[in-house]
Write a structure and sequence with these properties.
ornithine cyclodeaminase, domain 1, 2 domains, 7-stranded mixed sheet
């Protein structure tokens, strides 16, 4: 079996291509071109779980079967990358019948790219003040992703681990050439920001509606399974909610479920799926708070992984 490791994935995908792949994946989902059951979660020891995500893309250049199986280890349970596993792609022309692609790298890139796509669609064109909550791989990936779509000039950061927060700040300064403010609280980090990215594994809310400025765009990607919650449910009051998939968010997002139960959100139309937003429709100049809540979709993994295989085949000729 051919296996494409994390190095191959990162070398074969760039920001522009990833942004385009995100658009393709979300539009495939929004137009009903994907069969993908809700993610199956198997819980292991404390801070450990396995996710299994099969799908079939019915038509178009990325048509075919695929399946992602990934083990997620958080906090002290993580000795190395937090996500490990493979995306299996079937029947790609010119490749072996089954190809395995590193799931950790695919997940890291497609998740940050999804936020970049939502930011491109929803954030003000001149948004330049970024807040990053969390200090892991997704925090770093989101700084780079936001730089690819908006003229970021300053980053405020917050994390629960002071050492990890300082290291993130140093990395942003050296790698991204951006000034950084290390904040004492999540609320302090977001209070005057244009773009807010939540990338934590918080089990209780770290941001309330009153913490956010009047006008900003929020990407909330860190708490993507039951038992985790970054946002207080009151964040959805007087905000425009966009999702990767309404059904998936209603099944896996603690804050959305609580907002529905409290009558803040309507379960029949919990949000607007980002793939259904016309590319010529922009909320970014209208002000207010827009929020993109994503829990991750198999169609993203399949589109990104199949493209990696094709790029690898082309480079190997």
């Amino acid at each position: 079996m051919l296996y494409l490791d994390s190095h191959s994935v990162t070398q074969l995908l760039n920001d522009a291509l990833s942004l385009k792949l995100s658009e393709i994946a979300f539009k495939l989902h929004a137009t009903g071109q994907v069969d993908q059951p809700l993610r199956t979660i198997v819980r292991g020891a404390e801070q450990q779980l396995m996710g299994v995500m099969p799908a079939y893309i019915k038509s178009g250049p990325y048509q075919g079967f695929g399946l992602k199986s990934v083990v997620v280890k958080l906090g002290e349970a993580a000795k190395g990358p937090s996500h490990s596993g493979s995306v299996l792609i079937y029947d790609e022309p010119g490749a072996p019948p089954v190809v395995a692609v590193d799931a950790g790298a695919i997940t890291q890139i497609r998740t940050a790219s999804a936020s970049a796509y939502a930011t491109e669609m929803l954030a003000h064109r001149q948004a330049s003040r970024l807040a990053i909550l969390g200090t892991g791989l997704q925090a770093r990936a989101h700084v780079l992703a936001m730089q690819s779509v908006r003229p970021i000039k300053h980053v405020s950061i917050w994390g629960r681990n002071p050492r990890a927060t300082r290291e993130l700040g140093q990395w942003i300064q050296s790698t991204c050439d951006l000034p950084v403010s290390v904040c004492a609280s999540a609320a302090e980090a977001v209070h005057d920001r244009d773009i807010v990215c939540l990338t934590t594994a918080a089990r209780s809310p770290i941001i309330r509606r009153s913490d956010l400025p009047r006008h900003c765009h929020v990407n909330a990607i860190g708490s993507s399974a039951l038992g985790f919650q970054e946002l207080h449910e009151d964040v959805y009051q007087d905000s425009l909610l966009f999702t990767d998939c309404n059904q998936s968010v209603l099944a896996a997002s603690e804050c959305v479920i609580k907002a529905v139960n409290q009558g803040v959100l309507n379960p029949q139309g919990v949000g607007t799926e980002i793939g259904a937003v016309p590319t010529d429709r922009r909320w970014r100049e209208e002000g207010g708070v827009t929020l993109f809540k994503s829990v991750g979709l198999a169609v993203q993994d399949l589109v990104f992984s199949r493209e990696v295989i094709r790029q690898w085949l082309a480079s190997s000729v």
